[in-house]
Amino acid sequence: MNRNSMYKSHQKSRKLPSQAISSRYENNYSSLISYILCVPIFLLIGYLSVSSIPILHDPSSPNSSNPSSHLNQSNIIGRALIRTKHIKPLSCLYTAVLGFSYHFLDVYYSSYSRVLISFSNLLRCFGGFIGVNYLVFKAEFPSYDRLAIISISLYFIIWVAFDRSIHGLLFSYSSTMVATWIVYCSNVNFLSSSDPKDQYILMFHLPLLLFSYVILISAISRILLRPTSQTAN
């Protein structure tokens, strides 16, 4: 290839300043539209997650008013969630903040999830969330030590399976602790009069449930707001 042909090909590959500016504005507009469309989606997810509490978590037992007598785990966690003040707007706001925070943290650190989030992976993440719900509200453990070991192991398994980013782990854990603290503060009187066994179960199961929810929202966020140039690391 001679010098003239190389120069012509180089000129064709270069974008004019006006074209570069136009492309940048198009990207900004598309990002803005994505953000606007994601707001009602995150709010709807937060609302539906709260609306499903009476169905999934059975906050009131039809057989007895004693939360320790029937479906013990389901009652204590379901009642604690239902009794949280302003639970519906808090859930909507919490979900929206989670979704956008994950995206902005990914962009800031230029490091996305080490697990390539696809629709099939999102379904597996949702299945994991349902599995945690079943484990938290239906499974029985013979000892508190085994309960603690299984809970801690599940934190690690969920993160490895659906994230693997350091900032994702730190943010997921921090946001889980914030949500747990809000629920506890809204149920101080209720928890002080409950059985110590119920309090112990709530201490381990509630953060695990919230952590799986946070990871699920991160997967949804990375599907909805993922840049077209994102690839698996």
UniProtKB/TrEMBL annotation:
It holds the Pfam family INSIG. GO terms for biological process: sterol biosynthetic process. Its main location: endoplasmic reticulum. Keywords: Endoplasmic reticulum, Membrane, Transmembrane, Transmembrane helix. It is a multi-pass membrane protein. It comes from Smittium megazygosporum. One of its GO terms (cellular component) is endoplasmic reticulum membrane. It is found in: Endoplasmic reticulum membrane. InterPro entries: INSIG_fam. This is Uncharacterized protein. It comes from the Eukaryota.
